[in-house]
Every structure is written in structure tokens, then in C-alpha cells.
Amino acid sequence: xxxxxxxxxxxxxxxxxxxxxxxxxxxxxxxxxxxxxxxxxxxxxxxxxxxxxxxxxxxxxxxxxxxxxxxxxxxxxxxxxxxxxxxxxxxxxxxxxxxxxxxxxxxxxxxxxxxxxxxxxxxxxxxxxxxxxxxxxxxxxxxxxxxxxxxxxxxxxxxxxxxxxxxxxxxxxxxxxxxxxxxxxxxxxxxxxxxxxxxxxxxxxxxxxxxxxxxxxxxxxxxxxx
Length: 226
Ligand SMILES: [Zn+2]
Prior knowledge:
Layout (H helix, E strand, L loop, with lengths): L1 H21 L11 H12 L1 H14 L7 H13 L3 E4 L8 E7 L3 E7 L29 H22 L3 E8 L8 H6 L8 E4 L26
Parallel strand pairs: 3-4, 3-5
Antiparallel strand pairs: 1-2, 2-4
Helix pairs in contact: 1-2, 1-3, 1-5, 2-5, 3-4, 3-5
The structure holds zinc ion.
The site of zinc ion (ZN) has 4 residues, from loops.
């Protein structure tokens, strides 16, 4: 039951991200264009597959900077879908940029998928029940971040392909959200230079969204007091 709920949550969040991306092109009568409908249908049709991405990353449960299996899975899928995948961007072994389409606008979709130390937990169980005592787990739901963005990327790609739409999507996988490491390096290295709009997915309270300047290029520092 819990597993089904989790799949529905991922499906809902994915659809939500698609809605955020396409909301401006719904016409005054509220009619959804065939292009957008194609994207929505692609997500609906692949709901259980999108759920499996989230489940797989939940089970990999890899700590920040060690998300090798999680990143490989995303790389393989994105390549399979026809994205051009550049691995190891900004020197991070568990980061990639995957590009689809051409020309403007350029839309970035970004997520991290690191697990938290010591939070190993069996799926679908409410009480504390680690798979491996003391091992990492997805206590914060970063596996869902990945599934949502991957599902959205697939849906948008289907629409671009079917209607020969102008525009580029750039999907970023990134390590170690908990340590606040990679984002400034992507910006420094010019990966966001031509980007017109950037979407970052993170699970949150009440499925809320926000926009504007946030902590999105956050860096981590150590302060020593003597
Ligand atoms: Zn987080």
C-alpha cells in the first residue's frame, strides 16, 4: 500500500513540475495545447516506470559524492531517450549534464540524489526498521527529486520530438545536496550561461513551490574558532 502511495506521490510531483514548466502556454480558455498534452500523457503512461527510478535510487541509498549507481542509472536512461550526456561535469564523478533539443529557450532541470548517514530504512514500513543497521538511507526523499525530474525530462522530450519544437532542455544530476557542494561550480564553469529558466526539484512541505533567488548556489564552509 505504502509503495503504491509513494508511486502516486512521485507521479503527482512529476506532473506538478510539468505544470510549472508549461503553465504559461495554457490559453485563456484553459485548453491545454497538444504539445503539453503529449508531455502529460508521456508521464501518465510511464507512471510506474518513473516510480521505479525513485525506488531504485531509494535502494541504492548512496551518500553525497558517492552516488555512482544512482548517476549511472540516470545516465543510461537519458542516453536511451536520446539525450546527449556529458558525464563528470565540473570534475564531479557523480554529476552529469544531459541535453536534448536545440535553440532557445534553454530550460535547466536540476536535482541532487544523495542519501543521509545512518538512516537506512525499509520501504513501506512506518516503524524504524533499517535494512542495514547504521547504513545510509533516503530519510529526506532525495530519491523522489530524481524520479520527478527524470519523468518531467522524458515528458518534455516526447513533446519536442513529436512536434519538432524549438528549445533545449538541460538535465543536471548533482551530488551532495546535504554538503552544499556542486552548484556554484556548475555556474562558475558556464553550464548555466545560456539558461533562460532553471527548475530545481526538492521534496517539501505540502508540495509547495517557490521562485526567485534562493540558496541555489549555496556553498559549504568550515569555521574554526580559537
Ligand atoms: Zn535535501
